[in-house]
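Q: What would this chain look like folded?
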Amino acid sequence: MTDNNFNYDSFVRNPPNPIDIDNLFLQDSLFSSTSPSPSPYNSFNISSLNINGLKMFLQNKIELLNNFFSLKHISFGGVVDTHLHPKQVHFLSKRLTNYTVFSSVLDTSQHVRSSGGVSLFVENFLASHVHTYTSHSSRLLSVDLYFKGNVKLRIFVVYIPPTSDQSLRDETIDLLIRALSDAK
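A: My prediction, written as structure tokens:
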């Protein structure tokens, strides 16, 4: 990000939404049977899904994740609101043999309903480029990748709690803004 005038706070609190979600059908958008066009050379497919608890129907959800990642050729799959500790996610992710998983810590001490738990599934051929990953909280994770030619990429996975827990939501957004500013 080279623009020093970029307003992180405004972007995070009011992100642009060019897609009309009222007319978006899950089957048509995520699991359509039409094969996506091949990705251009040196490009990534990135997704972010709110899994809303991976414990529930975990076998089905893991299989759905695997099918979705494979069908859409996902390079980086952010999965939020897992409600799982990193060891639990790592155990379940063994079913996704083409991916390496990086997960946040899980803090269940205060906000059980918004406990979070975020993970990033990285395609194995890209996982070797992961240099570090940091769990900023149970709702924010960053993964740093280093590529040839001094190219660095930092990916954030964030779960912003619902408005019903406004203080935790604000705390998470503020933490994200600080992490974005630090990355700049």
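The domain at 44-183 is CATH 3.60.10.10 (Deoxyribonuclease I; Chain A).
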